[in-house]
Specification:
Blueprint (H helix, E strand, L loop, with lengths): L2 H19 L2 H5 L11 H7 L4 E5 L2 E2 L3 E2 L6 H11 L3 E5 L9 H10 L4 E4 L5 H9 L4 E5 L5 H13 L3 E6 L2 H7 L6 E5 L11 H6 L8 E5 L5 H8 L5 E4 L1 H4 L4 H10 L3
Catalytic activity: 1-(2-carboxyphenylamino)-1-deoxy-D-ribulose 5-phosphate + H(+) = (1S,2R)-1-C-(indol-3-yl)glycerol 3-phosphate + CO2 + H2O
EC number: 4.1.1.48
Protein name: Indole-3-glycerol phosphate synthase
């Protein structure tokens, strides 16, 4: 069993436990549940930079990244830097995140927020809406086509956008459907953690133009972004490159200033 299989097994157990304690009605009564969401895909289409910065304390591949700053400090720094959106890791066991992180981010900034999570159930999408997310991530590697359809259409019904993450051509081909807004290519193989921008370059021409193309992981230079833009990418998700510094917001600001 690889690390991704372990994460999904744990996640399914976690969701069932949460369902037994917090009913759907409680999530739907959240003060944020009926709030209007902001479209990240529209922002990316017209942005010069396309940066989606990430709040990420640790990961299975890098262990601890940064525990020194509050969510508020990080996301306000990102907003001040001019990011298009912010990804917030909410997985606890493997990434050190929580739904509270998403809630605190929502209370701190007005930019679009992505709930970065291993979503396997509609319940998690309700959680995302109740905690202030504007969009969710779906990972093709752990979902069937029918599950992607069901979950993306449910998100759409709640006014949430969907970023669908793929890693190879098979995942992309099984996933393309109208209920998606953005297709992200993860440059990190979730099973081996190998990282290469070639994954984004190879799949670029296979992604239909109606979807905003996002490149994720392993992006650490201006040159990489300028190169990926030639392949039609409008969004660039960067986490560790900013979070591993002493000031994630300042690091993002310096990076973005070189793109404009």
């Amino acid at each position: 069993m690889n690390i991704l299989d372990k994460i999904i097994l744990d996640k399914k157990r976690e969701v069932e436990l949460k369902k037994s304690i917090i009913p759907v009605s409680q999530l739907e009564s959240s003060v944020l549940f009926d709030s209007r969401t902001v479209s990240l895909s529209k922002i990316l289409r017209s942005s010069q930079t396309g940066i989606i910065a990430e709040h990420k304390r640790r990961s299975p591949s890098k262990s601890e990244i940064n525990y020194n700053f509050t969510v508020e400090e990080v996301v306000k720094g990102y907003e001040s830097a001019g990011v298009c959106g912010i990804s917030v890791l909410t997985d606890g066991k493997y990434f050190g995140g929580s739904l509270d992180d998403l809630l605190l981010a929502r209370a701190s900034v007005n930019v679009p927020l992505l709930r970065k999570e291993f979503i396997v159930d509609e319940y998690q999408i309700l959680e995302a809406k109740a905690h202030g997310a504007d969009l969710i991530l779906l990972i093709a590697a752990v979902l069937t086509r029918e599950e992607i359809k069901q979950l993306s259409e449910f998100a759409e019904s709640l006014g949430l956008e969907v970023l669908l993450e793929v890693h190879n051509l098979d995942e992309l081909r099984k996933s393309i459907m109208p209920s998606l807004n953005m297709i992200g290519v993860n440059n990190r193989n979730l099973k081996t953690f190998e990282v290469s921008l070639d994954f984004s370059k190879t799949l670029a021409s296979e992604i239909p133009n109606e979807f905003v193309k996002v490149s994720e992981s392993g992006i650490s230079s201006i040159e990489a972004i300028n190169e990926l833009k030639l392949y039609g990418y409008k969004g660039f998700l960067i986490g560790e490159n900013f979070m591993k510094t002493d000031n994630a917001g300042a690091s993002a600001k310096e990076f973005i200033s070189k793109l404009i």
